[in-house]
Write a structure and sequence with these properties.
Elements (H helix, E strand, L loop, with lengths): L15 H16 L14 H11 L11 E6 L2 H22 L2 H7 L10 H4 L2 E8 L1 E3 L5 E3 L3 H19 L2 E5 L6 H6 L5 E10 L15 H4 L4
The protein binds 3-iodo-tyrosine.
The site of 3-iodo-tyrosine (IYR) has 9 residues, from helix 3.
């Protein structure tokens, strides 16, 4: 046995019919997910978010460095601060910064600089990527594949929130470095995504958009 290794535990070998059925079931479950922008103010129990964050924290990462931090915000005053700062950036984005081609690409989503969901939804989760960590001696240690690792963990988080029955919105105010100060995170961390989490509003609407087909997204040799 390799040093520092243990037998694989927890892997359940299933028969191929079962694997097929489970793969279909999981795909069907994930395909019902929609990004939501109209949230209900109804509160969500903290334990639910803890379970979903625990799922996110199980994601694979470069050298298993787990270079992420999730700042969970439910305090109304903090949410208001974030909304004010985000809308300021978004107004600049929509009125001057974004090239016309970008605005054209966004048009089907119907987004604009107004971000009321940043206050309405019960939770905002800001995911920070840690460029550096600390080794056992407390010395600065470079992290590898930080954006990739954070992206994978976000995928786990979004999937688990959806599986549990909550809605989310992947929001990326640009630039979003104002989030470091509001969330009290160090300069060595870079905010990647602001995930808005809660129940959809009763009258929530979503844009009529489609996903690419399997043929379009895959090739087989
Ligand atoms: N950050 C802006 C613009 C925006 C950009 C992309 I790429 C999107 O997929 C959606 C929106 C906003 O949040 O409105």
């Amino acid at each position: 046995m390799k040093p520092n290794h243990i037998p694989l535990a927890g892997y359940l070998r299933r028969n191929s019919d079962e694997i097929r059925a489970r793969a279909d079931e999981f795909a069907a479950m994930l395909r019902t997910r929609r990004t939501v922008r109209d949230f209900s103010p109804e509160p969500v129990a903290r334990e639910i978010l803890e379970a979903c964050l625990s799922a996110a924290g199980s994601a694979p990462s470069g050298a298993n460095q787990q270079p992420w931090h999730f700042a969970v915000i439910s305090d109304p005053a903090t949410k208001q601060k974030i909304r004010i700062a985000a809308e300021e950036e978004e107004r600049a984005f929509y009125s001057e910064r974004a090239p016309q081609a970008w605005l054209d690409a966004l048009a089907p989503l119907g987004t604009d600089a107004e971000k009321p969901f940043l206050e309405t939804a019960p939770y905002l989760i800001v995911c920070f990527g840690q460029r550096y960590g600390q080794d056992e001696k407390g010395e600065r240690m470079k992290h590898y594949y930080v954006p990739e690792s954070v992206g994978i963990a976000m995928g786990f988080l979004i999937a688990s929130l959806h599986f549990a029955g909550l809605a989310s919105l992947t929001h990326t105010p640009s630039p979003m470095n104002f989030l470091n100060e509001i969330c009290g995170r160090p300069e060595s961390e870079h905010p990647y995504v602001l995930l808005v989490v809660g129940y959809p509003a009763d009258d929530a609407q979503v844009p009529q958009i489609t996903k690419k087909t399997l043929r379009e997204i895959s090739s087989w040799q």
